[in-house]
Amino acid sequence: MQINVSTEDLWSHCLNELQQSLAASQFNIWIKPLANSAQVVDGSLVIAVPNQIFLQFIRDRYLGMIEMAAAKVCNGVPPHIELKVGTLAPAAPAARAAKPAAAPEVVEQEAPAAPAQPAPKPAKRFDAAGSNHELMRLNPGHTFDTLVTGKANQVARAAAMQVAENPGVSYNPLFVYGGVGLGKTHLTQAIGNFVHQHNPQAKIRYIHAEKYVQDVVKAYQHKSFDDFKKYYHSLDVLLVDDIQFFVGKDRTQEEFFYLFNALLESGKQIILTSDKIPREIEGLQERLTSRFSWGLIVPIEPPETEMRVAILMKKAEAEHFKLDAAVAFFIAKNIRSNVRELEGALKRVMAYARFTNQSITVDSAKEALRDILASGNRQVSVENIQKTVADFYKIKVADMHSKKRTRDIARPRQLAMALTKELTQMSLPAIGDAFGGRDHTTVLHACRTIQDFRQSDQEMAHQYSVLLQMLRS
Ligand SMILES: Nc1ncnc2c1ncn2[C@@H]1O[C@H](COP(=O)(O)OP(=O)(O)OP(=O)(O)O)[C@@H](O)[C@H]1O
C-alpha cells in the first residue's frame, strides 16, 4: 500500500494519539524513546527499537494502537508496520514518503535478531519456561535502581539483594510481607530482573498466586498435570505474589507443596509475598506455613514522610517532571496510605500541570488533589479506632473500656490509645475518658510503651503499621 503522508506527519500523529491514550509513565518508557526512530519505506512504516525487550513489548502491547492511529492518516487502512532492533540512519526519520524509497537502514545491534513482523503466537496451555521479559512476566521497570530505599524497606531490600546475587543459596524461600501497595511486587521483581541481567539463561517466572490457582484448575480440567509439573519444576527462580490467595484452595496448596519441595531440593530459588506472615494466614496448610518460614521472612512497612518525598522526587524525575521540593513535601504529608496512592497523586498533579500549562506550586497541588485530600482529611474517630483494633485482635469493643488487665486485652487497648493519639487531635485526658475514664498518665504510659515495643519488637511494629494503614485508607 502506498503511504501518501510524510514520515513526519504519520509518526507525529501516531505519537500524539498514543500520548493521549497511554499513561504518561507507559508513554515515556516505551513510546517516547522511539520519537526519532520511524521511517516510511516502500509503503511500510519501519520503526527501529533499541532492543529485543522493546520489540516484544511494543509488538505485544502497542502495535495494535500504532496501527489504529496510523490508519487514521492513511485513509482508514492501517499501513504495514515493521519493527526492527537497531537504529535508523541519521537522516532518515524525517524523510518524505514521496521521495524514492531507500531500503531501511537499520544498524543491527548485538541483541538477538528480531522477527521483522509480529508472528501470531500459538495458544499454549503452559508457557515454556523462558528467559525473556514476556515469559518471565517481569516489569523491566521494577529494578533495585528504581526502588527508593528507606527505613521501611531496607531490611527487605538487603535480603532481596542477597537472594538476587546468590539465588538458591542464601535465603530460601525469601518471604516478603507488608500492606497493600507498599512495593512487595516491585522488590521481588527486582530480584527477577537482577538475576535475568546477570544470567540471561536462568528460567525465571513471576506469577500472581491467582494465576497459579488458575493453572492448577486448567491442569485439572485438561488432565495435563504432567505438562504443568514439567513447566513449573523446570524453573530456576519462581516468584509468587500474594500467596494469601491460596487460602481455601486445597488442591492448589497440595500442588504447591510438591513444587516447593522439588524446587528447594534442586537448589532453585523461591520468593513469596503476602500481606501477612505465614502463620497469620488463616486457612493455609500447616506444612506450607512451616515451609514458608524455613528461609527468611522480611517486612515492608509504610514509608515515613522523608521516604515518601524521595519516592515522589524519583518518580517525577523518571517522568522528566520538575517537582518542587515543597510540593513533594506537601503531597507526602497528605498522602500517607501507600506508595500506589502516592503515585496516583503525583500523576494527578502532573496532569494538572500539563492541562493548565503551568508549573506546580503547593496551592495548585492542593487544587489538583482537592477531592483526594477532602476524603483523606476525614477525621478518624476514636470509636472507629477502638472497633478496628478490637476486630484485629479478636477481642470485644467493650474491652477497650473495661478494667481487665490481662495482656491479651491490655496490649490492644494500649495500642488503640497510641493510635488515637497519633490519628486524632484528642488531648490525653479526652483519650483517657474515651477508654473507660482512665487517667491521662495511663494514656501517656500506653503511648510510651507502644513506642518502645515498636522499636524492639518487629511484629508489634508491623501490626501497628497495618492498623495505621487500615485506619487511614
Ligand atoms: N520504595 C519504592 N520506591 C519506588 N517505587 C515504589 C516503592 N515502593 C512501591 N513503589 C511503587 O508503588 C507501586 C505499588 O507497588 P507494588 O505493586 O510493588 O506494591 P505491592 O506491595 O505489591 O501491592 P499489592 O499488595 O497491591 O500487591 C508500584 O508502582 C511500585 O513501583
Automatic annotation (TrEMBL):
GO CC annotation, single: cytoplasm
The AAA+ ATPase domain, residue ranges:
170-298
InterPro entries found in the cross-reference section: AAA+_ATPase, Chromosome_initiator_DnaA, Chromosome_initiator_DnaA-like, Chromosome_initiator_DnaA_CS, DnaA_C, DnaA_dom, DnaA_N_dom, DnaA_N_sf
Which portions of the chain have biased composition (kind: Low complexity)? 100-114
Q: Which GO terms describe its biological process?
A: DNA replication initiation; regulation of DNA replication
PROSITE patterns recorded: DNAA
Chain sites annotated for binding ATP:
G181, G183, K184, T185
Cytoplasm recorded as keyword: yes
Task: Map out region (Disordered) in residue numbers.
Answer: 100-126
Annotated GO molecular function terms are: ATP binding; DNA replication origin binding; lipid binding
Region annotation Domain IV, binds dsDNA: residue ranges?
A: 354-473
Spell out the residue ranges making up region: Domain I, interacts with DnaA modulators.
Answer: 1-113
Enumerate the residue ranges of region (Domain III, AAA+ region).
137-353
UniProt keywords (A-Z) are: ATP-binding, Cytoplasm, DNA replication, DNA-binding, Lipid-binding, Nucleotide-binding
Highest taxon of source? Bacteria
Q: Which family does it belong to?
A: Belongs to the DnaA family.
Task: Summarize the protein's role.
Answer: Plays an essential role in the initiation and regulation of chromosomal replication. ATP-DnaA binds to the origin of replication (oriC) to initiate formation of the DNA replication initiation complex once per cell cycle. Binds the DnaA box (a 9 base pair repeat at the origin) and separates the double-stranded (ds)DNA. Forms a right-handed helical filament on oriC DNA; dsDNA binds to the exterior of the filament while single-stranded (ss)DNA is stabiized in the filament's interior.
Q: Which NCBIfam families match?
A: DnaA
Report what the protein is called.
Chromosomal replication initiator protein DnaA
